[in-house]
Design the sequence.
């Protein structure tokens, strides 16, 4: 089976923008291009006791690589973790933070830590420990809290759909908090006997968290266009998603970049596995020293559905 990695495409996404398909009310859809800004999110996936924390700072829309011993640190009242660069010099940082109490907030701060920041470097820290001192971003911070755990009710895992016109009813237990937003992120993998194609999409749920129901047609997830159109849709959607440098960040580690492929494929005859990740988001706060940006605490849950146009 042909598998071609999309690492180059993922890296180039940072330079691209597109008009979103569907609602633009997603709390992550804003583009911040002026001054010093930040995008920060902490997410707890279903049945987990850790949070994935992702962060990036921007100057006039361009990602900032923290210098030398400056690091993002995520902390609760009892735990802490330094965020690591997703890839070298991308400006995107991610870490896993143990959560003892989901009712307590998480603070993400840019710290200056000359020793700790070098612990994963290749050189001995006692030999090359030249510290230029803290950068100008040190002390900037954000605070987020988590919405209630997301209880995804349906569709059941491995539910089969036979037609692209079928409707998918995604149901969950509403939180009762009108300030929470909902978002659906999907990772779609389609294959036939000779090739495989996978891509990611995201839709905001404009009705918020009040109804507990979102209906989406299969043809919004499985396209019948050419590979060019599919790639454009991938770029168009993923650039609206928080920290879209890699798919691993997009789905908080649930889907890795290596799971995505690019090839030519007849989508009309292909079988597709579709991971649906529902995300409940709550807006946090950023340090006043930032000119703009967004901080989000979220919870998520996933299920996988199957598109089988040729029958089971």
Sequence:
């Amino acid at each position: 089976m042909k598998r071609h990695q999309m690492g180059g495409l993922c890296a180039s996404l940072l330079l691209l923008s597109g008009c979103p398909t569907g609602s633009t009310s997603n709390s992550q859809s804003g583009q911040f291009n002026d001054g010093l800004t930040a995008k920060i999110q902490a997410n707890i996936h279903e049945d987990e006791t850790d949070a994935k924390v992702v962060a990036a700072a921007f100057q006039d829309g361009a990602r900032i690589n923290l210098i030398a011993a400056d690091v993002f640190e995520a902390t609760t009242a009892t735990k802490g973790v330094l965020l690591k660069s997703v890839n070298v010099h991308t400006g995107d940082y991610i870490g896993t933070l143990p959560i003892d109490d989901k009712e307590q907030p998480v603070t993400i701060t840019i710290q200056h830590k000359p020793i700790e920041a070098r612990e994963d470097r290749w050189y001995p820290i006692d030999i090359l420990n030249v510290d230029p001192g803290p950068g100008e971003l040190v002390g900037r911070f954000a605070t987020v809290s988590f919405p209630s755990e997301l209880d995804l009710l349906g569709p059941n895992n491995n539910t089969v759909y036979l037609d692209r016109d079928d409707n998918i009813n995604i149901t969950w237990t509403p939180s009762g908090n009108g300030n929470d937003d909902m978002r659906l992120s999907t990772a779609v993998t389609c294959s036939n006997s000779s090739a495989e194609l996978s891509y990611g999409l995201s839709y905001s749920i404009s009705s918020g968290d009040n109804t507990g129901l979102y209906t989406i047609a299969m043809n919004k997830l499985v396209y019948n266009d050419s590979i060019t159109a599919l790639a454009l849709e991938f770029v168009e959607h993923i650039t609206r998603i928080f920290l879209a440098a890699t798919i691993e960040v997009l789905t908080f580690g649930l889907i890795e970049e290596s799971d995505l492929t690019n090839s030519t494929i007849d989508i009309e005859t292909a079988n597709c596995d579709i991971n649906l990740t529902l995300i409940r988001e709550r807006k946090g706060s950023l340090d006043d020293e930032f000119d703009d940006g967004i901080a989000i605490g979220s919870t998520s849950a996933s299920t996988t559905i199957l598109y089988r146009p040729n029958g089971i």
